[in-house]
Specification:
two-stranded antiparallel ribbon; 9-stranded mixed sheet; 5 helices; 239 residues; alpha/beta
């Protein structure tokens, strides 16, 4: 039996995929490679099917993507809104977060994943984070990681770290039960967690530099290691 834990990766439905005549369920290759390099076996979970895959995985990595529908947090879309191609994408990704919480599945939430967790906890978003001294789109900038956090333990470091950033939305009102574990210099919330769940949520994109940066690869190492422990625990219980 493989020692690689199964890591569920919820895909995003794209209306147009090169080489296909129709829409497709896609995941960035960089995310899949980062999981595999950390010792996990990535399993793509399509959003267009009511699949039972999430009950069979050992860990979850929920990647970034398009904007969350603002009506989920009581607002109307502004002129910057760039929504998903698939109307039920938010709900499909919310199911993955619910599975992580309800089943105790170790999970890494990336960018949109962090934002959706916050919204699902009753929080809200800045639909467009602007007028900042820190560039958040297609940039590398510093964030301050809180000591004693699950994030700090996963990274093996606290204090200032550089991250690869690509987002125009950000957390506004913090969701119930969430704790801020990293911020950028302009105050943007860069990571949150809940001590009751094995979930690390970051606003940045660790997959961008996972092959070359130990801080970024550490997040995938963490989720795969936690997933492996869960896999062994489940296998032991079934014997």
């Amino acid at each position: 039996m493989s020692e690689r834990p199964l890591i569920g990766v919820p895909a995003m439905s794209s209306a147009k995929v090169n080489g296909l005549r129709y829409s497709g369920s896609v995941v960035a290759d960089a995310v899949l490679r980062a999981i595999a390099a950390a010792g996990g076996e990535p399993v793509v979970v399509p959003p267009v099917l009511a699949s039972g895959l999430l009950s069979r995985v050992d860990g979850i990595v929920l990647p970034g993507g398009s904007d969350i529908d603002p009506t989920r947090y009581g607002q109307q879309p502004d002129e910057t809104y760039a929504g998903t191609d698939f109307a039920d994408q938010d709900q499909a990704d919310a199911r993955a977060i619910a599975a992580a919480e309800e089943q105790g599945i170790p999970t890494l939430l990336i960018c949109r994943g962090l934002q959706l967790w916050n919204v699902e906890r009753g929080g809200s978003l800045h639909q467009h984070w602007s007028d900042s001294d820190v560039e958040h789109v297609d940039s590398v900038h510093s964030v301050e990681v809180a000591g004693g956090s699950r994030l700090s333990a996963a990274l093996g470091i606290s204090g200032a770290v550089d991250v690869s950033s690509y987002h125009h939305q950000a957390i506004d009102r913090l969701g119930d039960g969430l704790e801020i574990t990293a911020r950028a210099a302009d105050g943007c919330i860069e990571a949150v967690e809940d001590s009751n769940h094995a979930i690390v949520a970051v606003q940045w994109h660790p997959e961008d530099r996972a092959e070359t940066d130990p801080v970024d690869s550490a997040l995938f190492t963490w989720v795969v290691a936690q997933a492996k422990e869960r896999m062994h625990s489940r296998l032991g219980a079934s014997v």
